[in-house]
Design a protein that fits this description.
The chain is built from 9 helices and 9 strands. With 202 residues, it is α/β, with parallel strands linked by helices. Helix 7 links the parallel strand 8 and strand 9.
Length: 202
């Protein structure tokens, strides 16, 4: 059993928290209670071994930088994408072109081990990868091999088979998977809001 804090209680955070709790982990969720968000984030991060960033990507850097001391020595699993939304509320551009949210977080939090994953799919697939008609891929980006192994084990708890998990290398590779978010609005407009994931055919 691992102590896990999920920052963000929207569809992504809620789905991950429920699935990880069912898998036997001790999960704390810090949401956006007015006037108490910072304290709730700090308390949750302080008690956890692994912290999952499921906050809206545009505000993630500021929100997590404020937790520098609480996150020191922890594994930070970043599942968010930092985008500029279009008029329809769907991603229209990247907030950090030529970089990525994961890279920005790792630079701002040098004492934290950042691992990027699960950001190339609709939220429902994160905890139910076998629900798709074809095998999906979950990608890992990060500098610390032990942190990536710990995240890999969490993914298997969420139903991901070993052969569906691909380690892309260092945190710089996250800029490639984060750019995949730009597929999302076009897929949704073409096929509707149905579960899907970006996968590599082999």
């Amino acid at each position: 059993m691992t102590a896990i804090a999920v920052l963000g209680n929207g569809r992504v955070g809620g789905t991950l928290a429920t699935a990880l709790t069912r898998a036997g982990h001790e999960v704390t969720v810090a949401g956006r209670t007015p006037g108490a968000a910072a304290d709730a984030d700090a308390d949750a991060a302080r008690m956890a071994h692994i912290v999952i960033n499921a906050t809206p990507g545009a505000g993630s850097l500021d929100r997590l930088t404020a937790l520098r001391e609480e996150l020191r020595g922890k594994i930070l699993v970043d599942v968010s994408n930092a985008t500029v939304d279009g008029p329809d509320g769907l991603p229209a551009d990247l907030l950090y072109p030529g970089s990525s949210l994961a890279e920005q977080l790792q630079e701002a939090l040098p004492g934290t081990r950042v691992v990027k994953t699960l950001n190339t799919m609709l939220f429902s697939v994160m905890t139910a990868p076998a629900s798709l008609t074809r095998a999906p891929d979950a990608f890992l980006s990060g500098e610390d091999p032990q942190a990536k192994q710990a995240v890999r084990e969490l993914l298997t708890d969420l139903g991901w088979r070993e052969e569906w998990i691909t380690d892309l290398g260092g945190v710089r590779t996250a800029r490639a998977t984060e750019a995949a978010i730009l597929f999302v609005p076009h897929v949704i407009r073409s096929s509707g809001f149905a579960p899907f994931a970006i996968s590599v055919a082999r």
